[in-house]
Design a protein that fits this description.
alpha/beta; Pyruvate-ferredoxin Oxidoreductase, domain 3; seven-stranded mixed sheet; 8 helices; 40% helix; globular
């Protein structure tokens, strides 16, 4: 049985590290893993999507609409934008932070209101929390990605030691303690 995780966000938020970390823990647990490249304008603040698929044997890294078991969203509008990819009974772990896309910045559009309420009304299993505040508590706003993975980790049966080992393999030593703290705060929030 193949499981599918989508990581969605805005360029520069650390989706590459998040997908690398997920790939690492899944590989170390013996799964066949396919991770797509980051799709989108990753350096320009545009929408970015990465797919992580795992199971006994995975043939393609692509996730189609209605196939995602989990969506990890670094920003509210991105969660709403990709909600149609979620399976029935799938879960979205979302940072409640709002980052204005270019049409909002230029005044051509307004940021949609009440996105959390709208997704809940659509019967989405939503775990929304302020990952930016958690990251700041850990010591850096750049740790939003790891705080979100900490929250996602509650849906998996990997041990704390397995997550810590994956962090140690993927995070540069000078940022390791900060990221471990962000992970734990996200997990225990």
């Amino acid at each position: 049985m193949t499981k599918n995780i989508m990581i969605v966000g805005v360029g520069g938020q650390g989706s590459l590290l998040a997908s690398k970390l997920l790939g690492q823990i899944l590989l170390s647990a013996g799964y066949d893993v396919k991770v797509s490249e980051v799709h989108g304008m990753s350096q320009r603040g545009g929408s970015v999507v990465t797919y992580v698929r795992f199971g006994d044997k995975v043939y393609s890294p692509i996730i189609d609409k209605g196939e995602a078991d989990y969506i990890v969203s670094f920003e509210l509008l991105e969660a709403a934008r990709y909600v149609e990819y979620l399976k029935p009974q799938g879960h979205i772990v979302v940072n409640t932070q709002q980052i204005d896309p270019m049409p909002v910045i230029t005044g051509a559009a307004e940021y949609p209101e009440n996105l959390v309420e709208k997704m809940k009304a659509a019967n989405v299993q939503l775990d929304a929390f302020d990952a930016l505040a958690v990251a700041n508590e850990a010591g850096s706003s750049k740790a939003v990605n790891i705080a979100l993975l900490g929250r996602l980790s509650k849906h998996f049966e990997f041990t704390d030691e397995q997550w810590q080992a994956a962090l140690e393999k993927c995070v540069p030593p000078k940022f390791l303690e900060l990221n471990k703290k962000a992970f734990e705060l996200g997990r225990n929030q």
